[in-house]
Amino acid sequence: MNIRGNIFGATAIFLFALGFPAADQLLQTWGIMALIALRNLLALMVMMFLIFLLEHNVSLQKLPWMKGFWIGGIGFGFGSLLLLIAQAMTDATTAALAAAAMPVFAIGLEVTLDGRRLSGRFLLAVALVLFGGALAAGVIPGKSSFGTGFALGLFASGIFAWGSRETVKSFPTLSPLSRTAITTSGMFGFTAIPCGAAMFFEHSWSTVGSVDISNMGLLFVYACLALGLSQVFWIKAVDDVGIGIASFHLNATPFYVMIIVFILGSEWNWMQTVGAAVLTVGTLLAQLPEKRSNH
After folding, report:
1. In the chain, where are the structural domains located?
2. Which of 223, 66, 231 is nearest to 163 (CA)?
3. How much is the pLDDT for 146?
4. Secondary structure (3-state) at 1
5. Number of helices (H) and strands (E), helices first, in the chain?
6. Strand runs (DSSP E) across the chain, as ranges?
7. What is the pLDDT of residue 138?
8. Nearest partner of 256 among 23, 5, 11, judged by Cα
9. What is the DSSP secondary-structure string of 74-105?
């Protein structure tokens, strides 16, 4: 088991989860397109600054910006936009549940494109992860309704899985930070165009909220932590353990969101806690070494 890769994955998803409560607050005054375009721009600026600060042997001009732009624009720009629209149509928990369905798409990609074989134990692990993720998101059979918003969130998860895998496979010689920076440029470029169009037509999606101390703090969390640093850790996790296992960590997103809102004053949810424990068992089970058969 790759412990380091799993630590990177868990760290990435905890940082990612910080963005959901922050987005809930920001969406009260900000338009969707204005918020996500600013988020992507701030994250890109943070990454380029970190490259300049930490990777002295990397020339920003020589990075494969064009290819990264397309992968990031489709995989992360389109995906993150759909996820934010899904959250605006539903709530933070529903959006987090849709994101937690990503293992299905990630494993499908590994089977289709990488020739991965699925053992019975691995399928059991996947089932535990999905069941734990549903509990962690507070989904109760018969009481949950899944509409267009949730469907958009699922579609976003599939696109995000493709973008994550493609980022690692397409740039094997680049550091996780450089990989993330060039794909984040695509995220920003993809959202800047419709944001500009929304501003031109004075659509509510282009509304710029108040930039006070509170919103500045929320933007820092939403852009720099939940996207900037989170993406770097995420791409490193995908590189270390593969998109299938890395995506298992996404199922803990609702549990992390619950912890964060608990710290902010909400009640503790034991069902989500049990769900997090179940998906942890599934994640560990999936990574036990396979028995080798003698031929």
Report:
1. 3-286
2. 231
3. 62
4. coil
5. 13, 0
6. none
7. 67
8. 11
9. IIIIIHHHHHHHHHHHS-HHHHHHHHHTHHHH
Res 44: pLDDT: 93
Query: Minimal CA–CA distance to 168: which of 109, 83, 117, 119?
Result: 109
- Tell me 216's DSSP state: H
Give the Cα separation of 22 and 38 in Å (integer): 14
Does residue 107 contact residue 161 with C-beta atoms inside 8 Å?
no
The pLDDT averaged over each successive group of 10 residues in the chain (295 residues) is: 90 92 90 90 92 88 94 89 81 72 85 83 86 74 64 90 92 92 93 90 86 90 93 92 88 85 86 86 83 52
- Of 165, 89, 125, the closest CA to residue 251 belongs to 125
Q: Are 159 and 219 in contact (CB under 8 A)?
A: no
Return the structure tokens found at 264: 């902010």
CA distance 92 to 96: 6
Sorted by sequence, the CB contacts under 8 Å of residue 288 that are 6+ apart come out as 1, 121
Predicted pLDDT of residue 290: 65
Q: Cα separation of 142 and 11, whole Å?
A: 33
Cα 41 to Cα 62: distance, rounded to the nearest angstrom? 20
Relative orientation angle of helices 65-72 and 176-200, to the nearest 10 degrees: 60
Q: Which two tokens stand for residue 254?
A: 């609702």
Scanning the structure block, which residue is given the tokens 């984040």? Answer: 184
CA 264 vs. chain centroid, Å, equals 22
Q: Is 94 left (phi over 0), alpha (psi -120 to 50) or beta?
A: alpha
